[in-house]
Design brief:
Two copies of one chain form a homodimer. Chain A has 377 residues and is an alpha/beta fold. The first copy, chain A, folds into two domains: 13-268, Alpha-Beta Barrel (TIM Barrel); 276-368, no CATH class. In chain A, 41% of the residues lie in helices and 19% in strands. An eight-stranded parallel sheet of chain A has the order 4-14-13-12-11-10-6-5. A three-stranded antiparallel sheet of chain A has the order 1-2-3. In chain A, helix 14 (328-354) packs antiparallel against helix 15. The longest helix of chain A is centred in the C-terminal third of the chain and has 27 residues, at 328-354. Chain A is globular and about 60 Å long. The A-B interface holds A 40-42, 44-47, 65, 69-70, 74, 77-79, 84-86, 296-297, 299, 313-315, 317-318, 320-322, 324-325, 327-329, 331-333 and B 40-42, 44-47, 65, 69-70, 74, 77-79, 84-86, 296-297, 299, 313-315, 317-318, 320-322, 324-325, 327-329, 331-333.
């Protein structure tokens, strides 16, 4: 059997936006693509069959969580993350660096790497660029991400530059440590804060290392949508056109649309899943809080324009009831709906790029989105 | 369209056991049948599609929970319980009496009915036999249960008799209040504690009221399996052979098998669903606690003899991980597996009755069940 090499094929563009297909060792992904987050070996409150039914083709796993529990070596002995959780499509894993900064109880950063204490049991761990790649290799990740320092926002130019340079040295070490396998990939991560010339320098440094794909990191950390778009737009022209571009941790629907318009191919975000566990539903008229009593007698579905049976079948009254009664099914159905909403958005973005109508689609979506929820009955 | 009348068709017997089909306004149910419990308008942690995939054909709803939240009138205005939760098959509801005794904060029982305070918000409610039937009518229940007093265990003969006589007077009022519709049913509930002559008197009193089915109530309340079997065996000969017999709240697999051998057709129990949310899985070698560290590296499935993809696909190591990480998917998959285990048990019981091998099946099942879980690797 010939293994499919890791390749991005662009078949349509509309302005800076591109639509195409990413082939991997574990199947193809239509781009632009949204990857649901499966933190600890599960997209929370979803079976893998349900994730697939929403249209998702690739998911994200968090190395930080998995290395601590159940452990990367254990997952390797159980056949890798995909077999462990029975997800047959490709998986992208982050390096663990971002969660170490946000979750670990204590951490020390040095040129060598980062030493931290687990938020679960206080145990001490040492994550180097080499170990980050080893962990992702043990997990069997289709796409591994380099270990980087996610530059905080705000940061001075000097701080952003020093941080970016450290990330570039780590990226070089990750590149060297990555075990090449057909159809697998490592993505470099562009840093540099909100400083265009640092972003350019970072993109150039990574391109020289010849990664299979490039991520834009350090955004969606509080800088706001305008600055996020500016920074992405300042970065993308310096990335190779024939490789996938991944905007990490983004985002809200309008963030995704704007980033697609600027040439981004891949996204991940906890928003649809986390919202689904906190009573928030995405509709084409904006978000809806199902906990609100206005839904208690409403027989209408969440959003009939979303072609998922969950979105079309269950009444708002029923979903409201499940949430008030703290039933697990409420979280299951809202997560399912939200992921279906996101996947449908991506499918519509791809179709709009292919028909050369992306700006019109973006305008219509934005107008609808700002309109607010349907009137109470 | 002709509506199917509510009919039990027995097509095979083996000793006192019977196999057949219960036809209802909302579809057919193969008997002996196990009804998963859907307390508050959802079989907890399961979509209705998943419930159906386990082989379940009929589910149970709790009137007590539904009358308090979201309210019987509200469910009626939303199309009834089946449409509310999108369950297309038949639904049986209890009367609410059992939960008033076990959950309500305060209650006063009189000839008229029972006044109680909601465990949710302390609001005061009055449940009479007539209101219990009205509530179940509003819910659109395929099978309504009469309001009864579940006689506590232990009870003196005098207490059991007084309690049973009250339940019989309430049953008469329920019978009068039931709105007859083709394919719908009301079941009387035999009480009488563990006293055979009281059970006989209760069965005779109910039979004279000509219910569409008969339940054996007041068991599985601490009397033990031997006494439960004895009481069921003392009751069943006094029930009409052509009507379904339902043993309420039972039970463990060996309880169900023994009751089927004594002529019971229908069961419900929270055990498979509640166990699924507390890390306990049913296998043909007994129950397994997936929280136990012995499963952490075990690549074997829960029970390959259960023909459900959940039971056959996921490793014990993965399920253990989900439970340790407190992932919702752990509860979802264990509940699914447990319900599939129960439904497969019922299918095997029906097949054994039809092939005249029920005693052999019961013996083999019991031997396997007592053997204990597979050896650690």
């Amino acid at each position: 059997m010939t293994v499919q090499p890791f390749t991005l094929t662009i078949d349509a563009t509309d302005g800076a936006a591109r639509a195409g297909r990413l082939d991997t060792a574990h199947g193809a992904v239509d781009t632009p693509a949204f990857m649901p987050v499966g933190t600890a070996g599960t997209v929370k409150a979803m079976t893998v069959e349900a994730v697939e039914a929403t249209g998702a083709q690739m998911i994200l796993g968090n190395s930080y969580h998995l290395m601590l529990r159940p452990g990367a070596e254990r997952i390797a002995s159980l056949g890798g993350l995909r077999d462990f959780m029975k997800w047959t499509g490709p998986v992208l894993t982050d390096s663990g660096g971002f969660q170490i900064m946000s979750l670990a109880k204590f951490r020390t950063l040095s040129e060598e790497g980062v030493i931290f204490q687990s938020h679960l049991d206080g145990s001490r761990h040492n994550l180097t660029p080499e170990r980050a790649m080893e962990i992702q290799n043990l997990l069997g990740s289709t796409v591994s991400m380099v270990l980087d320092e996610c530059t905080p926002f705000p940061a001075t130019e000097k701080e952003a530059e020093d941080s970016m340079q450290l990330s570039m040295r780590w990226a070089e070490r990750c590149r060297g440590a990555f075990e090449q396998r057909p159809g697998y990939a490592t993505f470099g991560i562009v840093q540099g804060g909100v400083y265009p010339h640092l972003r350019e320098a970072s993109a150039n440094a990574l391109t020289a290392m010849d990664f299979e794909g490039y991520a834009i990191g350090g955004l969606a950390v509080g800088e706001g949508q305008d600055m996020m778009f500016e920074t992405a737009a300042a970065t993308i022209p310096h990335l190779p056109a024939d490789k996938p571009r991944y905007l990490m941790g983004v985002g809200k629907p309008l963030d995704i649309i704007g980033a697609v318009q600027r040439g981004v191919d891949m996204f991940d975000c906890v928003l649809p899943t986390r919202s689904g566990r906190t009573a928030q539903a995405f509709t084409h008229y904006g978000t809806v809080n199902l906990r609100n009593a206005r839904h208690a007698d409403d027989p209408r579905p969440l959003d009939e324009s979303v072609s998922s049976s969950v979105s079309q079948t269950y009444s708002r009254a029923y979903l409201h009831h499940l949430i008030k009664a703290e039933e697990i099914l409420g979280m299951m159905l809202l997560t399912w709906h939200n992921l279906a909403f996101y996947q449908q958005l991506m499918a519509r973005l791809r179709a709009a790029i292919r028909s050369g109508t992306l700006d019109t689609f973006a305008h219509t979506f934005s107008t609808d989105w700002s309109r607010g929820d349907i009137e109470p009955l």
